[in-house]
């Protein structure tokens, strides 16, 4: 077999794995529409709302009561998220909140929910 062919196959396999790992669902993660997310936020009193966007994005508006722990810092700041509570995550489009859920799940968090489509789909009031 040609070495170049082997390298190409490996690169394609690595690329396919990367794309799959970014877009695949997270087992046990509850995906909610904006309306469902808003309704659950009202009724669940044992929760923590985490905005995983970067601080510059948060300045444009955030959901009231959210704690900002950017995805880029979540591993270092995981101790700030209380265990035993329902964790509600959101970001700009829903991609980073899924990644945050994966990290939290690997660290023992089980009740994880995220805003499908991110804050771009949010039709509720935003704080600044």
From TrEMBL:
SUPFAM superfamilies assigned: Rhodanese/Cell cycle control phosphatase
Coiled-coil spans in chain: none
InterPro entries: GlpE_sulfurtransferase (IPR050229), Rhodanese-like_dom (IPR001763), Rhodanese-like_dom_sf (IPR036873)
Domain Rhodanese: 43-128
PROSITE patterns linked: RHODANESE_3
TM segment ranges: 6-23
Keywords, alphabetical: Membrane, Transmembrane, Transmembrane helix
Taxonomy, superkingdom: Bacteria
Keyword Transmembrane helix: yes
PANTHER family: FAD-DEPENDENT OXIDOREDUCTASE (PTHR43031), RHODANESE-RELATED SULFURTRANSFERASES (PTHR43031:SF18)
Protein's UniProt name: Rhodanese-like domain-containing protein
Organism of origin: Paenibacillus aestuarii
